[in-house]
Amino acid sequence: MSQHYLDPVINPRTVAVIGASKSPLKRGNRAIRTLASANYKGTILPIHPSDDEILGYKAYPSVAAVPFDIDLALVCTAAATVPDILEECGRKGVKGAVLLAGGFSEASEEGRVLEERAVAVAKRYGVRLIGPNTSGMFSARMGCNASGWFNVPTGPLALLSNSANVLLSLVAEFQFQANTGISTMLSVGNQADIQFHEYLDYLGTDDATRAALFYVEGFKNGPAFIETARKVAPAKPIVMYVAGRSDAGKGAAKSHSGSLAGDYAVSRGVLQQAGVVMVGQSDHMYPVADALSLFPVMKGRRVAVVSEGGGPITMAAEALAANGLVLAQLSAETQAKIHAVVPAASAISNPVDAGGGTDPRVEYYGPISKAILEDPNIDALLLVGYFGGYTTRYDDSVAEAEQAVCRELGELMHKHGKPVIVQTHFANFKPSSLAVLREAGVPFHRHIEVAVQCLAAAADYGRARERLLASAGADQALAPRAHAEALIQAARKQGRDLLETESREILGEYGIQVPPSVLMRTDGDAAAAIGKLGAAPLAVKIVSKDILHKSEAGGVKLNVTGEQALRAAFAEIKANAARYDAGAEVTGALATPMAARGVELIIGVTQDPQYGKVIMFGLGGIFVEVIRDVAFRSLPLKEADAREMIAELRYASVLDGVRGAAAADKEALVDLLMKVSQVATAHPDLAEIDLNPVILHDKGYSVVDARMIVAPAS
Amino acid sequence: MSQHYLDPVINPRTVAVIGASKSPLKRGNRAIRTLASANYKGTILPIHPSDDEILGYKAYPSVAAVPFDIDLALVCTAAATVPDILEECGRKGVKGAVLLAGGFSEASEEGRVLEERAVAVAKRYGVRLIGPNTSGMFSARMGCNASGWFNVPTGPLALLSNSANVLLSLVAEFQFQANTGISTMLSVGNQADIQFHEYLDYLGTDDATRAALFYVEGFKNGPAFIETARKVAPAKPIVMYVAGRSDAGKGAAKSHSGSLAGDYAVSRGVLQQAGVVMVGQSDHMYPVADALSLFPVMKGRRVAVVSEGGGPITMAAEALAANGLVLAQLSAETQAKIHAVVPAASAISNPVDAGGGTDPRVEYYGPISKAILEDPNIDALLLVGYFGGYTTRYDDSVAEAEQAVCRELGELMHKHGKPVIVQTHFANFKPSSLAVLREAGVPFHRHIEVAVQCLAAAADYGRARERLLASAGADQALAPRAHAEALIQAARKQGRDLLETESREILGEYGIQVPPSVLMRTDGDAAAAIGKLGAAPLAVKIVSKDILHKSEAGGVKLNVTGEQALRAAFAEIKANAARYDAGAEVTGALATPMAARGVELIIGVTQDPQYGKVIMFGLGGIFVEVIRDVAFRSLPLKEADAREMIAELRYASVLDGVRGAAAADKEALVDLLMKVSQVATAHPDLAEIDLNPVILHDKGYSVVDARMIVAPAS
């Protein structure tokens, strides 16, 4: 693999410390000490106007004075100095700079202007910037610890964060657990130049990184991140905490990093679509990222639980169910194998309670785990209770037997390609067997819910990965239909949105089933309408570029039957519209058959401020208005995305038929979602689509109302 | 306070170890060693057929041979020996026995019979039993460690559990945290004699216990537990993990302890009503119980957050919002005080970000916390980030300043009666300040979500406590109305449920508004019905003791207007009923006006297998059928319970008016719930009440359908 363009910045062979200092309280002193403490493999170049040497390193009066190439400048000086320093760096050909100072766009308008100036200078010379307002970075390959913190453990996880404080919390967790470490750590600061997606793109090429963990308050370029994530995720799990689930959280994020966290439902939808594993709690970040860096890819959601006590099994069962994981029944063959090991076990079908009646024996765990992992009904194994801490629970006489099982669990995990994870009450005491277990590649945790969270994340990742691999490259055809584009451009020229009649035409162009309709322009058209649409009850709706809210304007009549009633309805609608807005230009009224009964849905395309065009789908009526049971995805949609959107609804069961209704036609719904995606993707100037409601029948669907909004002509 | 009747059993002055042994592998040996290791203050009496001395204690050949009184027998022998041993204990006047052996009702039918025999013997002599199938007990007052585990830390928390394994997990947590300890620990086993509620009653009288923590798979006497909890909870927080949220969890609990976990929604409703604080994760059990044992009573849900970094603040804001806690705005006065301390702070209105721009200083935390806790807008304070670990983050030079703040936080917490809790990234390293913080009574945790969980539990507890104290003793009048009781007893005698007409009469007897109606027995009654009910559209429903499902039988006609239509509807209903069930005895048909529009509700009373009669209330239609948005309470209901039931619905906002509807009449709903509770409480033989639907209007309500089922006559 050829070297990534950010490689010299993240793994610099030379670091110039600008603002280097002999005073131990200064950042420019600490910077040198942390670099030295991590055994930096490159050259440390203190830059100081007068000192020849700082902390034992030869110092230079300026970057220009350094007699060889500089990869990275670690800028420890105040904000105001930065543009000039970057100018010097640029002239010297420095490849990247870490800007530690705050006081830029996060602080004030003056700061924003200063940041713009700094970025302009950097761009002119091609100096790439980390920050400003960053606590720094760490990368293990060169031992480049420019984070200002000591003792950063080295290992396979990359950390990226909008918050230095969150990074420090994670580093503390690595230090306490002492089981794994960090390949690259980036406090992204204001992302004035390099943003999350470029860092991720680099990590995709970094052999030392097996998984990446993000704390995100907001993306500066959401679509680019999505695109990069889709590319990287199948090879490397991306675990992310995203702020913005609550108004309180959004407010705090905005106040902190100036980020617009946006709608969390949108973030979740589009990021999961791109293969990102979302975590909702800070205490799940480390465990989930760590587990995903160790686990083989999980193929389904069926978990087996083994313990020597019913209480932890019960708690595990609750936690699994809460996370959509399934306690699948073990095969008769597996049960027979387990019975042979522990004839007195109180449960063997899954969960397996290897205690019960007798004192448990650690030797049981090997053959039981083997039998379970050989069972095709099972995708992962969770041990809960004492295991891993038998030496603490009993004494050292069981150490050898327990450690043999630990090694066997690791071998079984890799042989069968199924995650194994251990919850043990004694985790915090770090009994000797747990070191052996980790050595074998099996993660362990103190708490059941955390271990279950790791499995749920592994299952989510496995499914997303499979979807991404299966649908890679298979984007739908995007050629716009000429007539549809003409309608859109005509409306834009006239500075108006599309009429419902036009929206229906556009949908029809892409094969979306639109109910028959007649646009009545004069009273005389009523007869023709009845001639075409028949004696069934009709809906009649005003068509006017000036009337957006048709019902509010008295512009809708329902259940209109026969020519006489249709004429009357048309007249009344026109009269209402004139009363509502005397100046409104009325094209006519649209008559269309009332939709048959079915499940009310809403499908829309909107412009998200972070991610660009996204499609929204949900159950209609109170489900959208009260419950907001909706799913989002970025465009274009793949068929598997459409299916996951449907499955993701909390009350998706409504589609299977409730209150005596027949099951709704999900295949037709998938087709409709895909075609709406096509329409939106094919026409960049179509800003919004709103199909509300759509009625999904047991066979097919009815688009009852269709509204489209165009992007303003520039 | 006089001594509790269980006191001699839980704090025995003498313990006879039955099955005492010199072999270190035997439970009867370990039992003596654990008692001795906890410095048991009473007398250990090994019982052994031949040995004179075991582990240095004088042994006796039988309990009868012991020359003084025995409080407790610790029975380490096999199940089959237990009845005879209890016989001996009974004769000797032993007050209680711990039955360690398994192999009783949890194991087999033979075991169940054996358990019954043992209980019968014990009851004859008044020997109270802990277990069987228990891992034992621990009580700190006498140092009576009969748990079989060493090093059980002593402190203010009581632990009670259906699972010994869960107890051991909690003991490990106490040992690792080393901050608090256990007053009494009980592995309740099969609860063959003493059950959860009697243990709780004892704990209510135990001065050493400040809070009680339960793991429950099922109650044997739910109503007794509820009654005891109501009594104890206002003085001592009761924290509980209850199994049964999922089918998987119910299955595991049943397989483990044979418990019928029942409907979790019912458990949650009735236990919270009784003042119990529910936790849903195993990793919240210890922190929440510990925090509630330390905190002053929290008076509201308004929390202030202080940190020196925006990331942890954002995460705290998310976690608070997820738990219904509010980041209330600090008063202008408080903000001015904070501004005076940290002029450069990036946020001071709440959350308070004391960092931002400058390096944070630990001295800031004292005056900021003081200002916040003096603010009447705030009920509790949460610190997140570095605080508590400044010595780890920086160095020991800040230790003195940090520890002064720790002491001040404890003083402020108690002075203002507002909980204070600290989340610190460095908790696991146990820096010196955290010991000072604990000493001052302030809990700390490693993770934000755990700290927030403690505050949410404190707010829940504070509200429940206030409700229990306010409504103590104010039970509603329970005198049954004679006519209602007569209708119920007549139906019971006839072995049938109540007719809808009778159900409506009973509701009317208690002042529940029932729409006017006419029972038509013959065609001629149609005219009278129209005369009484008028020309408005009517609902017409079959009245027959033999037809339960009226709609299914074609026994319901809606929107019937005028006499002619009413006659036709009556005829059709009768014909349909005859076709549906030719043998059905038809009383007639009930005509009643169609209900006006409003919010559809469902109110019911059912017999819960664990808790007895409970009332259920929820939103109707899809809300109950798809979403199951319902709340449960035990009877009788207090007004505050009714209000909490309404507030507890996930989609309670529907009652405030959605889709343009007016707000529904919540006061009328409260009145209706209270009256339904009265009906159910006044008539013990009324087994079920089902008002479905009830339509709640902007003024008043309409009970559209009322069904009542009587208890079978014995």
Automatic annotation (TrEMBL), chains A, B:
<dbReference type="InterPro" id="IPR016102">
    <property type="entry name" value="Succinyl-CoA_synth-like"/>
</dbReference>
<dbReference type="InterPro" id="IPR036291">
    <property type="entry name" value="NAD(P)-bd_dom_sf"/>
</dbReference>
<dbReference type="Pfam" id="PF13607">
    <property type="entry name" value="Succ_CoA_lig"/>
</dbReference>
<dbReference type="InterPro" id="IPR013815">
    <property type="entry name" value="ATP_grasp_subdomain_1"/>
</dbReference>
<dbReference type="Pfam" id="PF19045">
    <property type="entry name" value="Ligase_CoA_2"/>
</dbReference>
<dbReference type="InterPro" id="IPR043938">
    <property type="entry name" value="Ligase_CoA_dom"/>
</dbReference>
<dbReference type="Pfam" id="PF13549">
    <property type="entry name" value="ATP-grasp_5"/>
</dbReference>
<keyword id="KW-0436">Ligase</keyword>
<dbReference type="Pfam" id="PF13380">
    <property type="entry name" value="CoA_binding_2"/>
</dbReference>
<keyword id="KW-0547">Nucleotide-binding</keyword>
<keyword id="KW-0067">ATP-binding</keyword>
<feature type="domain" description="CoA-binding">
    <location>
        <begin position="9"/>
        <end position="104"/>
    </location>
</feature>
<dbReference type="InterPro" id="IPR051538">
    <property type="entry name" value="Acyl-CoA_Synth/Transferase"/>
</dbReference>
<dbReference type="GO" id="GO:0016874">
    <property type="term" value="F:ligase activity"/>
</dbReference>
<dbReference type="InterPro" id="IPR003781">
    <property type="entry name" value="CoA-bd"/>
</dbReference>
<dbReference type="InterPro" id="IPR032875">
    <property type="entry name" value="Succ_CoA_lig_flav_dom"/>
</dbReference>
<protein>
    <submittedName>
        <fullName>Acetate--CoA ligase</fullName>
    </submittedName>
</protein>
